[in-house]
Amino acid sequence: MKQLYKERLKKLFLNDIFSLFIITRVILFLIAYFSTLVIIKGSMYGLPHSFLDIFLRWDAQFYMSIVYEGYTYMPGRVSNVVYFPLYPYLIKAIYFFTGYARIVGHVISNLALLLAAVYLYKLIKLDYEDDEISMKAVFYLFIYPTNIFFSIIYADSLFLFFTLACFYYARKKNFLYVSILGFLLALTKNLGVFIIFPVLIEYFDINFGNIKISLNKIKEDIFYLLLIPAGLILHMLFLYIKFNDPLLFAHAQKEFGRVFTTITTTLNSINNYPIFYQYLFAGFLFFAIFMLAYAFYKKVRLSYLVFSLISMYIYLSANILESIPRYFALLFPIYISMALLGKKYKILDYFFIIASISLMTIITILLINGYWMV
Fold first, then answer.
1. Total count of domains within the chain
2. What is the pLDDT of residues 25-46, one digit of tens each?
3. Beta carbons of 296 and 236 less than 8 angstroms apart
4. Any domain includes 270
């Protein structure tokens, strides 16, 4: 009877996506709140007027400036034009009817995270019948060290949701849905448009065992895929009309220290950071490389790896390593590799859980209390 009770509890709290979501969000927000009561504040800490104000850091402030003021640009100064429009305009549209922009932003981010988890589960189930693998991947997603950024006013969770949904419907050969989601993805972050390459891989059924492109597979639905670059083109048209520069989202990055350069140059910039961040960036980089290499070894879907490698190349060609830990959270094959390893080796499962929660706690505390954090 006692064993049956334990099994039911485990099923309720550990094998249910919504339960995992609620539990991890409550823990995360409790860590954030209680840390403000005991941690000495950093130089960038602003006195909050409400509970949600403690989460208004870095990119969140730029997104909210778009919500309230629209896009602005002044040469030589950091500007919100580097951020893509879908997420802040979605907040703005709902805020128009509710009047609570910050609440709306947090609801959108957390709802997107929950949907991302659902699609991660569904995507993995297409290749692995074992439910434990899918649930472990979802759990690792929820406790990833930079997970706080999925639950505050950042576009990361929305981007991850659209990415996973794109892959899921590409696997299901529903390219109308893929194109609509890809259009939205291209309006969420500058990397979104690159989803077209792995989508084409799925369209032509290219995988490790089949690298040939068969033109016989081309049907009318391939024209749907033109919607994906149309998202980027639409935003570029807006920037051209408003600022006379369709690539301003890229050009304005230099004010943040981001310019396109070699990977070697970016990696060498690690010496410009304090020792804590050197270890942090190097640790995340090595971990991501190892997990993607393991995914390649296990022949995880080729399209997933192509998208991850394109993303990683762009991340590592930006001249600076800031935000690298957060960006790597969007490389979902990492969660698949972690789940495969965690299921096979119990000690690695414990290591992933302890290390992830520990780093998640540290990063959350630093972010919330006004210390520089990616």
1. 1
2. 999 999 988 988 888 776 666 6
3. no
4. yes
10 located within any domain = no
Which candidate, 29, 99, 35, 56, places its Cα nearest to that of 369? 35
Residue corresponding to tokens 């050009």: 251
Q: 130 near 310, Cβ under 8 Å?
A: no
Place of tokens 């100064």: 77
**Best CA proximity match to 316, nearest among 307, 306, 303, 328:** 328
Say which residue the tokens 């210390």 belong to. 371
How many residues comprise the chain? Answer: 374
Q: Which residues contact 312 (CB under 8 A, 6 or more apart)?
A: 288, 292, 328, 331
Question: Is 119 contained in some domain?
Answer: yes
The tokens describing 339, both together, are 């789940």
Is residue 16 in a domain? no
Q: Are 296 and 245 in contact (CB under 8 A)?
A: no
Residue 152 backbone dihedrals phi, psi, to 5 degrees: -120, -170
- Give Cα 80 distance to the centre of its chain: 19
Question: How far is Cα 319 from Cα 217, in angstroms, rounded to an integer?
Answer: 40
Alpha-carbon gap, residue 368 to 31, rounded angstroms: 10
Residues sharing a CB contact under 8 Å with residue 52, sequence separation 6 or more, in sequence order? 102, 103, 106
Domain span including residue 181: 45-368
Res. 7 pLDDT band, cuts 50 70 90: low
Q: Give pLDDT, residue 68.
A: 94
pLDDT in tens, 223-275: 999 999 999 999 999 999 999 999 999 999 999 999 999 999 999 999 999 99
